[in-house]
Amino acid sequence: MPSIIHARYTLRDGVALENLAICVDGEYIVGAGTLSELVARYPMADRVGGDNYILAPAFTNAHDHGRALGTLALGVPDSFLELWLGRLAHLPRIPPYLAALYSGLQLLQSGVTAVAHSHNPNSWSELAAELPESLRGYADAGIRVAMHPPIIDQNQLVYAERQRFLGMLPPELRESIGDAIGIALSADEYFAILDDLYRSAHDREGHRVHIQASPAGGQWCSDELINRACEWARRRHTRVQMHMLETRYQRIYAEKTWSKSFIRHLDDIGALGDWLTLAHMVWVEDDDIELLADRGVGVAHNISSNLRLRSGIAPIAKMAAAGVKVAIGLDGHALDDDQDFLREMRLAWTIGNQSGMAAADLSPETVWRMGADIAAEITFGVDVPLGKLEVGRLADLILLDWDAVKGIWTPADLPSLELLPTFLLRRAKREHVRQVMVGGSWVVRNGEHAKVEIKDVEREIWERLQFESGEQAARFDLYLRDFYRAWDNGDWPSPPR
Fold it and tell me: pTM of the full predicted structure?
């Protein structure tokens, strides 16, 4: 039976509208109009909503790692990315199914119905077995996933100058370095795993699962590997996601390796296109922003993670003004470790609007789209009908508690349709997400999961972690910091000829 979803106000393309309801039948939106129009057209339909709600398209988390818990809770404090990454291999292991299930449940309570999952294996040798378990966890949570397992083939310990780094270490650490390096998976093995997963899980019709490629980052991947990933994705009409220019040292690596920017180099090898999403992009050069827009490249912006790991602030207002498709991603590293997507949007908006009257403006309407339709497009592709409250689109939507958001007092002219997106972006939090629909089915009702008891999942994770202990591998931190500090001072050899 169809359902009519109505609210006092509706957000469409980031703009607030009055008296707009939608009708859902099966997995799709089949009607849009005033409540009275839809009731006349669908007299037997259920009705959900009311004047105390705001109706909006559900969110897509454009970049995440699905760890279940933040790394701080697992014993790894924030630090510079290059230092922090070395400790992640020693995290306590949560089974991939439980990690994905709990991550999906957290995101749904935040209004997120789709996520781009960059898989961090518990064991590289078990990657082929872990990926279906992660997919099963997301499926049981009821959330869509774009799965892109990572692959690297170079520069695992440091971005370059490995011998110089090894020479800085005391003998006992140099002898143990074998535990910290080594490419665990060949390119052929990786693409065989992707092929199997694509054949068994990629969902072209319902878009519950998309399988994608992920050369993990330009400094960690050869040109041959990056091109092979792009070719693999394009032949299958799917996508590629890469970490890119997250830190200053990745930008220096490109300058010294090719005497040009990372983005220019990727364009030279034919890797830029509308099939590609680049995560972070903190250190993108201004001269490359128009090139990204021209090539249709997506950018997944991770403001909390970039701040916590001291990477910097990406120029997202400039990118958005130039026409780059910028979306919001939590990276599994939100500022408060709570996966609050609305707070992440607020932080991105607040910090994205930089000082100076000449600075580009980032409007609230743009930020709402960065969390909804733009995020869906750069995560699943432009042809996937997600992210908008329009007829023919998949019915992924949320209802926000308007009474709770507005509080005890609002300006005399609120609700003003012009002011409402700003007001919501400044005030709304995950606790205000009351109802969440994925593909026509309610997965969150009154803020609680409709089918899964999250407390049971939390208890199982807690019990698993009783038997796990993470080894704190801080052995190389001081030496890594000294090593990269030299790059800050320009102490880097000339590029190879």
Answer: 0.96
